[in-house]
Amino acid sequence: MTLILGIDSGLTVTKAVIFDQTGRVRATARRRVAQSMPRPRHVERDMVDLWRQTAAAIADALAACERPASDIAAVAATAHGDGLYLLDRSGAPLGPGILSLDSRAGALADHWRLDGTTDRALARTGQMPHASAPSAILCWLRHHDPDRFAAIGHVLACKDWLTFCLTGRIGTDLTEASTAFTDVLTQAYAPDIPAIFGLAGLPLPEIALPDQVVGHVTQAAAALTGLAPGTPVVAGLHDVTASALGSGGYDAGTVAIVAGTYSINETVTRTPRSDPRWFCRNGIRPGEWNAMSISPASATNYDWFLDTLCATDRAAAEAQGDVFAARIIPEIAAAMARSSTAIFHPYLFGAPQGPQASAAFFGLRGWQDRGILLRAVIEGIAFNHRQHVDALRDGFAFTRARLTGGLSRATLVAQLFADVLQMPVTTSAMDEAAAWGAALCAGTGVGIFAAPTQGPEPSATRTWHPDSGRSAALATRYGVYADLGHAMAPLWPRIDALQEWS
């Protein structure tokens, strides 16, 4: 039996998913990876622990699959993009990994907007540098942690670190390379681009195609993971692109939407087009670009509400063997059937407007209940996705949406997205879209598939069509949501200045 391993390392969980060549999931294993927030805006994790937990997840998946490790034909990793994972000149981790939720460089990114750096970067790289961009974090380190900056030997992304742990190979892939330092037209590094940020001479990793075999599982990695030594490993790809590929949404006529930790909204184009509202990053192949409009403002807000405000009820449900999410959905559905003035900005960890924007409920009344608040949270998440999708609609032609992410499994959420976006929305039957996107690259690298886009496409569960009445009502609510954002813009910096850390 021929199997493929896709590794998907998110911001809180690292997963190993074993697929057969038809795309059927044969085994899945997850391990949590602890985050640390040692100071305001710093979101980090231990790189060695990330590898340890990922290796354990691989071993768990192999055990659950009950097939010999020799059946794994190839491996690929995908992981959260942006952020920073540094190695020193000996190849050892240089401090903790910095996650894409980190915003320590937010003030620097704001300053770049004023001094012209942002405009120069947009023209050359196809994107505006933001708080968690490698360019911004590296420049922040140069100013605030010069000893660490001076010791940099290699600049990697999260999945590149995992590939290094598996193979000993230091490098990146075409999609990940474009997070900061590639020319938007040539899709390759250009020496003048790091200099835009004051980073001339930066050691940048070698670029491979996502489906290119770049190494093989070492004896040391095999001992930790249970994989067979010598198993081919391909370069892998950025998780935003992997999610579009694995959900069946990597297509020029489709906007692929992931309602996960990040609000991810993307479409493929054969003509690069730059705009402050999206990143124009490299696609899977040269001559393809992936226009991404994203922000850290999606389902993580819903998870925060359940974790923070529903902890007691969740614990009680789990003690009875119930899934709390199944209990809460009817409560939200009932709230959707009632009138409500509640509006929520889902900006707990960031926003399209920048890192100083913060989350808030508006229009609350004393007689409103938890269901109304949760309805506002989910609507706010969908409204934020609409802001990104509307931006992409201004630049690209697409007529359909492909939706994935944990929230999309709820019928009322899928219908809500169709109503808010005012377009058909198809949900995917593939629960592990990013891992499958990585596996498609792995399979292509060893000849199982002709190309990453020519493997088995996940089947659709259903297509949701907008209801004209609900769409009109939600458009009115979206207008209030957007106007509140404009009204709050001058206040967010003042609110942010109130923060204290004890």
**First-residue to last-residue Cα separation:** 56 Å
What's the CATH class of the largest domain, please? Alpha Beta
Which of globular, elongated, flat, extended, rod-shaped describes the shape?
A: globular
How big is the Rg?
22 Å
CATH topology of the largest domain: Nucleotidyltransferase, domain 5
**CATH architecture grouping of the largest domain:** 2-Layer Sandwich
Number of strands: 22
For the residues shown, what is the average pLDDT?
94
Structure commentary:
The chain is globular, with a radius of gyration of 22 Å. The protein is an alpha/beta fold. A hairpin with a 3-residue loop joins strand 14 and strand 15 (263-269). Helix 10 packs across helix 16 (433-445) and helix 13 packs across helix 14. The strands form seven sheets. It has a seven-stranded mixed beta sheet, with helices on both faces. The chain contains 18 helices and 22 strands.
Short description:
The protein is an alpha/beta fold and 502 residues long. The chain has helices at residues 47-65, 106-115, 117-125, 134-144, 146-150, 158-167, 174-177, 192-196, 219-225, 239-247, 300-309, 311-319, 324-336, 370-393, 411-421, 433-445, 468-488, 492-496; strands spanning 3-9, 13-20, 25-32, 44-45, 72-79, 85-87, 97-98, 154-156, 172-173, 207-208, 213-216, 232-234, 237-238, 254-259, 263-269, 279-282, 289-295, 343-345, 360-362, 400-404, 425-428, 460-464. Pfam families: FGGY_C, FGGY_N.
